[in-house]
Design goal:
Elements lengths: L2 H26 L16 H7 L6 E6 L4 H17 L4 E6 L5 H6 L7 E6 L2 E5 L4 H12 L5 E6 L15 H9 L3 E6 L10 E7 L7 H12 L4 E4 L9 H7 L1 E3 L3 E4 L1 H4 L7 E4 L15 E4 L4 E3 L6 E7 L4 E4 L21 E8 L5 E6 L15 H12 L22 H32 L1
Parallel strand pairs: 1-2, 5-6, 5-7, 7-8, 8-17
Antiparallel strand pairs: 1-3, 3-4, 9-13, 10-15, 11-12, 14-16, 16-17
C-alpha cells in the first residue's frame, strides 16, 4: 500500500472517530442556545430556582396521541425543565387510545393534557406554558394540609365572592399558587378547625356574637396566624380582639396629597412606595394603592414584637370631616400628619411562631382594585409570610414583545404592491431584457 493511500485511510478513520465521538458527546451532554428575543424559549430565573428545590423525581406525563407535530411542540416545552434537572425531571408520553382506562381514571379529557406527579401528589394541566407549569410544580412542592380560612356571616369580603368589594379574584389567585381556601361561618361551626393555617377577617358589616369572638380569641391564644383587613369605622363586636392586640384605629379616613401628583382623582387613595427590611416585604419595590384606608396604632402586650410594614407618605393625614372640595388638615380635630401606619405586623414565639397582620384597608385586595399597581403582588407576599411560606417563588407570566408585527396602512399597501405587482413586473422586464440582448447577439 502506497504512502498516499495509507494517509487517506488514516484520515477517514480519524474523521469517522471524530463524528462518532461528537455524536456520543451530543447525546450524553446536551447543550442548547436560545437566541430568541428575551430568551422566551428558555426557563426564567424563577422557574430555574424552583426546580433547584426538587428533592424527589418529578414525573411529567403527556397524554398525547402519536402525532409527531403535537408531541414535538409539547416535548420542546417540557425539555426546558429536564435540561435544568436531568437527574429528577422525567418526561413520558402516553397514547390515550391505547390506555383508555388509565386516561379515564386520571381525569384526562384533552389531547395533550399534562399530568404532573411529585411525592404522591399530582395535578392535571391543560394550558402548557412556563407560567402554568411552574405554578403547578410549586403547588406540588407545598407541604401540609393547612387552609386559608375566611370568616363569613357578617357581611365580610368573601374570598370566593364576585362583587366588587369581595376578594374572589385574590382567592382564586391563592388557589392557583397552591393554597387551599375555604369560608367559615362561626355560627355554624363549634370552633375554628385545627388545620387552619391563616384566618382572614375582612371588613365585617355586622357585629360578631360574643361566642364567635371567644372562638377567635381562643384561636389567637393557641398561636394561630391572622390577617385582619379593617376599614374606617366601627369594629363590629371585635373590640376584645383589638384590645388583646393593643390595636387602635385613628378616626377618619386617610387623605394623601400625593395621589393628585400621580394623576389619581380620589384623594382618599393612599400611596405606599417604600417598604422596610422586614421579611414580609423584603425586596418588594412596587407602588401600592390603598383606597379609603384607616390609620392604625398598636401597643401590644408583653411577648409581641411589632413592625410597621406599610406607611403613607409625609403629605397625608387622617381626615375626620367630609371629603369634598379642597380638603385641609385640621390638627384641632385630631388629624395627624403622615407618615401614618396602615399595615402593622405582630409576631411572637409562644406557644409557636405566630404571625398577625393588621391592615387598615380591605379595598386594595378587592375585585375592583386588585389589578392596581402592585396590589396583587403585595397581597401574595403578605400571605406567603403569614402562612410561613416565605420561600415561595413568584412565577411571572412571560410574553414576547416581538410576536405581533404592526404595520401602518401605508406600509401594508407598499408591501402588498411590491410583492404582488412590482416584484413580478420587475422579473418579467428582466426576462424580456435578457431575451432581447440574446436576440441581438
Amino acid at each position: 500500500m502506497s504512502r498516499q493511500r495509507l494517509e487517506n485511510l488514516l484520515f477517514y478513520l480519524l474523521l469517522a472517530a471524530a463524528i462518532a465521538l461528537a455524536g456520543w458527546l451530543g447525546d450524553r451532554y446536551g447543550r442548547a442556545w436560545d437566541w430568541s428575543d428575551s430568551a422566551r424559549n428558555s426557563l426564567g430565573s424563577a422557574s430555574v430556582q424552583l426546580l433547584q428545590r426538587l428533592d424527589a423525581p418529578l414525573e411529567m406525563v403527556s397524554f398525547a396521541p402519536p402525532d409527531p407535530a403535537l408531541r414535538q411542540r409539547i416535548g420542546d416545552i417540557l425539555e426546558r425543565y429536564r435540561r435544568q434537572r436531568p437527574d429528577l425531571v422525567r418526561i413520558r408520553f402516553v397514547d390515550p387510545a391505547r390506555q383508555p382506562q388509565l386516561t379515564r381514571e386520571l381525569g384526562i379529557r384533552l389531547a395533550g393534557e399534562l399530568r404532573l406527579g411529585y411525592r404522591g401528589r399530582s395535578e392535571n394541566l391543560r394550558t402548557l406554558d412556563e407560567e402554568h407549569i411552574s405554578n403547578a410544580i410549586q403547588r406540588l412542592l407545598l407541604r401540609g394540609e393547612s387552609w386559608i380560612v375566611g370568616l363569613t356571616g357578617h357581611g365580610e369580603r368573601r374570598l370566593d365572592g364576585s362583587a366588587n368589594h369581595d376578594l374572589g379574584e385574590f382567592g382564586r389567585e391563592l388557589e392557583r399558587k397552591g393554597y387551599r381556601v375555604q369560608s367559615l361561618n362561626l355560627a355554624e361551626s363549634p370552633e375554628i378547625p385545627d388545620n387552619t393555617g391563616l384566618l382572614v377577617i375582612a371588613g365585617p358589616q355586622e357585629d360578631y356574637l360574643p361566642g364567635e369572638v371567644k372562638q377567635i380569641r381562643r384561636y389567637l391564644e393557641q398561636g394561630g396566624n391572622l390577617l385582619w383587613l379593617l376599614d374606617p369605622g366601627p369594629l363590629h363586636g371585635l373590640e376584645p380582639i383589638a384590645s388583646r392586640l393593643g390595636l387602635t384605629l385613628l378616626p377618619g379616613t386617610i387623605v394623601d396629597a400625593e395621589a393628585g401628583a400621580l394623576g389619581l382623582d380620589d384623594p382618599t387613595v393612599a400611596v405606599v412606595s417604600r417598604y422596610p427590611e422586614q421579611a414580609a416585604v423584603r425586596r418588594f419595590d412596587r407602588i401600592t394603592l390603598f383606597p379609603g384606608a384607616a390609620a392604625l396604632r398598636v401597643k401590644p402586650g408583653a411577648g409581641w414584637q411589632v413592625a410597621a410594614l406599610l406607611q403613607t407618605q409625609a403629605r397625608s393625614w387622617n381626615e375626620t370631616g367630609p371629603i369634598r372640595g379642597r380638603v385641609r388638615r385640621d390638627p384641632e380635630q385630631g388629624e395627624q400628619a403622615g407618615p401614618l401606619d396602615l399595615g402593622i405586623a405582630l409576631t411572637r414565639n409562644q406557644p409557636r411562631d405566630q404571625r398577625v397582620l393588621l391592615l387598615g384597608d380591605g379595598d386594595f385586595l378587592s375585585n375592583a382594585f386588585l389589578g392596581n399597581a402592585g396590589n396583587l403582588d403585595l397581597g401574595l407576599a403578605l400571605v406567603r409570610w403569614l402562612s410561613h411560606n416565605d420561600n415561595l417563588i413568584q412565577i411571572p407570566a412571560r410574553t414576547a414583545p416581538d410576536q405581533n408585527l404592526e404595520l401602518s396602512r401605508g406600509a401594508g399597501l407598499a408591501i402588498g404592491l411590491g410583492f404582488l405587482i412590482l416584484l413580478p413586473l420587475g422579473l418579467l422586464l428582466t426576462g424580456v431584457l435578457i431575451w432581447w440582448r440574446r436576440q441581438r447577439l
